[in-house]
Amino acid sequence: MERTGTDDRATTEGGAPTDDGVTPVGRAMDVFSAADEERGRGVRRMKLTATGLLVFVAAVYVLAEWASHRGAGPWAGYVAAAAEAGMVGALADWFAVTALFRHPLGLPIPHTAIIPTKKDQLGVSLGEFVGENFLSRDVVRQRLRAVGIGSRLGAWLAEPEHADRVTEELATALRGALTVLRDSDVQAVVGEAITRRADAQEIAPGMGKMLEKIVADGGHRRAVDLVVARAHDWLVLHADSVMDAVEGGAPGWTPRFVDKRIGERVYKELLRFCAEMRDMPSHPARGALDRFLRDFASDLQSDTETRARVERLKGEVLGRGEVQDLIASAWTAVRSMIVSAAEDERSELRMRVRAALLSLGSRMATEPKVQGKVDRWVEGAAVHVVSTYRKEITLLITDTVASWDAEHTTRKIEAHIGRDLQFIRINGTVVGSLAGLLIYTVAKGLGA
Length: 448
Hints:
This protein is mainly alpha-helical. Among the domains are: about 1-30, no CATH class; about 30-115 and about 405-445, no CATH class; about 195-320, no CATH class. Helix content is about 80%, strand content about 0%. α9 (about 205-215) packs antiparallel against α13 (about 285-300). It is rod-shaped and about 165 Å long. The model is unreliable at about 1-25 (pLDDT under 50). InterPro entries: DUF445. This is DUF445 domain-containing protein. Keywords: Membrane, Transmembrane, Transmembrane helix. It comes from Streptomyces galilaeus.
């Protein structure tokens, strides 16, 4: 992002800051920053120096020619030849440097003003150059392999402060993602996914296998013990309710004392049955229950009617609003729990993530096998990106250069490299002078 003057906000071409302070895409080259202005002043100083040197050798040439005509001696010819060649070298290099950025003396000489007139072609060439020399599979693999990302990243992650930093960044990203997500959208997706997965897979055979294993291992006996014990305790606490229920169901023509005796008898039998079933692991009712569960487990796996009834029941349960509300409330609870854990620096989640990062960093730093895996993964990912988006990357360069304003681009490039180019003019003057002196000397020697 380019800046104008000391203002911290980017400006548009007309100088007005954008709403977000960011220079519009494709207009960065249209803005001259304070640093660019300073570079421009340096270019102008070097131009004056190079031009001053040209004026100096021109003056030397005039004086040497004047002295030669006044009979100053052979030395005047040597000086004049050197100064003359220096002028030619200076003018030739001035023309070459100027032709890069503009038409010399404003004359539309062919093959001048190269940067403003050939800007788009330069952008295409730059994109092709980058694509061929930087975005090829072999170059990317070679450079990444030379870097040794796995070992370097491992050594970096193995430092506690770096692991803390990564953990904090991950927690921030997680909180941001959960904040952006709308609960209604997530609940709809989760509910639809659960329903689709449940509809696509029959659950009866799996339930049958699980029940069969539970019964075979005796895992259901604790549940039976609990149910029987609770039933016995409930009968003890609600004796009157049980007897009232039995008496209330008796015919109206029976005497009340008979109904009462029957109610007491039924209650005692129920209480005795529960007590015996609770205290006798080998009670016949337990055996009957075991046989029932084994038969039901077998039916769940092999009986077509039983499996169909289970599937219908599954569909009815999943379709109920209460189940969907349960899914929604579960997501809300999970999200709240994750956000709280991500915010708490001492939470189990963050501590485990930090420990995992430290462990991973240590392994990556010391185990060549892990380093190789990381290097191959990074290389594969980079090569995939390069192979898939190479054209888009080079087009980004080409289109960006094409969007630049020619005049501002020329000024900006000249500000960055113009100072060094002025040394070409200075060197041309000096080298031309030396070459002219050498040629004149050789010519004089041969003529002598």
